[in-house]
Design goal:
The chain has a 7-stranded mixed beta barrel. The protein is elongated. The protein contains 2 helices and 7 strands, in the order E-E-H-E-E-H-E-E-E.
């Protein structure tokens, strides 16, 4: 597989509300203990910073880039642990991914899709029905003016002339 390989993951977010969150995502060959995750003191094979788009507690993200590629050693594994850690709190989620082994290793496609394990902290999605988000577009037009608010308190009486 190319050293510029990417990995598309789908999983459960540490966040329940939809939105965009700043996170660090790690790939590890073993499941770290929760206290090690909290302190970010666990071995990882790869890591990257992301603006994670969450919808209904779920996310999809493509890991790896030309600047920060997924090492080929990750794809040699049967499975790996994905750890998603919020940059501003101790919130995190962790799930296991299993790599599909292809009989044709010479494919030109450089995106490897994964299947998620069936565990309590993992959500299984159908990769064929999921469409990844693109980049955000330009800011839209300003909305209409809202209604006037209630009148404020009467001010102090002025000087007599």
């Amino acid at each position: 597989m190319s050293n510029r390989a990417r990995l598309e993951i789908h999983g459960k977010s540490p966040f329940t509300q939809s939105g965009i969150y700043e996170v660090e995502i790690f790939i590890s060959d073993s499941k770290p203990a929760p206290d090690k995750i909290k302190n970010k003191q666990f071995p990882s094979l790869w890591k990257g910073h992301f603006h994670l788009r969450v919808k209904d507690g779920l996310f999809t993200e493509t890991l790896g880039s030309d600047v920060n590629p997924i090492p080929s050693s990750v794809y040699a594994l049967d499975n790996a642990w994905i750890i998603v850690v919020d940059l501003f709190s101790s919130l995190h989620s962790i799930f296991n991914v299993f790599f599909e082994k292809s009989s044709d290793e010479n494919k030109s496609e450089n995106i490897s899709k994964t299947k998620l394990s069936k565990q309590a902290d993992t959500v299984k999605t159908n990769p064929d029905s999921f469409k990844p988000y693109g980049y955000g577009g330009p800011q839209g037009d300003k909305g209409s003016t809202g209604p006037h608010g209630i009148s404020g308190d009467k001010g102090p009486q002025g000087d007599k002339g």
